[in-house]
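=== Structure Prediction Worksheet ===
Name of assembly: unnamed complex
Input type: mixed (protein and possibly other molecules)
Chain count: two
Listed entries:
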Amino acid sequence: MSWELVKEIVRQDLEATTPPDAEILARFRRAKREAPARSRSFFGPVQFGMAGLAVAFGALFFWSTNQGSTGSNVRVTGETWQSARKASEQKADSVIEIPAPQDEVSEPALEDAEEKEVPRRTKPKSVPSKAPAPSALSAAPRWEDVAQAMRTGDESRARELIVQLRQSDDAETRDNARLAEVQMNIVVRDGKRTLSPAQMATLQDLRATGATSSIRAAARRLLAQVEGASRPGADEVPGESGLSPPSP
Amino acid sequence: MFTLATLPEQAFVAAEETRAELRAKESELLLLIYRQMRSLVGPHPDLDDLVQTALEQVLLAKFEGRSRLSTFTHSICFRVWMKHLRSLYRWRSVFSFQADEEPRHSVETRTPLSEVEAEERLRHFYRVIERISPKRRAVVLLHDISGEDIPTIAQIVGTSEATVRTRLRDGRKRLKELLEGDVYYGRVREDELASKEGKTS
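=== Predicted Assembly ===
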């Protein structure tokens, strides 16, 4: 076979079957015009469906790889949040119980919970004078130590802890510590509701610029009591502000 | 008058000016690339896409005038085609599918039987030559069909002239084996022999 002849035939065929220039140009111009339409039709329903499926699979994969002890073994029960917290403090191998929504929790259960958690969830009006300020909840461990020291009568330890709390970065904790220090001074000093000028200034400062409204209110009440006690014939209402001195 | 045929080698110096000129002559460039790509791939269904891709690359590329513009465009056509072949092989290795043999834009305005036959014969030739390795195939097509010389082919495919000669020799040898007893070109051989015998007698 002559390759020369074959390639000549191929050349001729190529030349013969090549479309005219005008046809080629028209075809490419048409393709150029249709290009935007094709790009618009790319995101058709099928493509969107496939994209949605891909996202769903991705989410499923992410969930399956990230589920830990808090995802797979959680069982919602009707327990109160206290039991849930206690359970969460246990080892992770046990099943964690999460409380039901609040409206499903019975009223007595909530009351019981509050009774059990009084030392931690103390509110200012219902707390005896030895308890720290209300917003001390935020610094729970250290305030607990203060309360414990005061309960055991270790005054120096309590003062030491309060001094530490007074140096806290948190303004609320700091103001609470200042307030507690003033309260301790009132309570400890032989039953007399007297304050030094510096402590009076501290109270006045707290009344004006306390970090929270409860601190300002407590400082205001304390000031009123101290000023009332300094007046002849004035008497305090026990238990109102939680600042009554301990009985001898 | 600026035409690609009369384009001197040092016509394009500044790249930006070159690009602007190429854009201005886009139609002329398109026709050149179309012919070059068609000689490489034949009446392939993806011919138009390949031409479009090559044209875009030519317009975006930086032609420095170190070779003829046709060599430059031919090398881009070659690279686009090779890339297409690679992706096609990868696709075929994963999926088994029957390629659409008919060109997407079939000849509509030309209906004579001779042209239909020519197209069919051409398609058959490219089917046969597809069985040769792409590198050898490219050299054979560039040399024997497109009519490029060895140094130009070496520039286009990016190898030495010796390699081009080797590929050309091996490609021709393999093609000869493939066309041996071929339905189309075997008959051509018979016709050729018959015509030669007629001349001698």
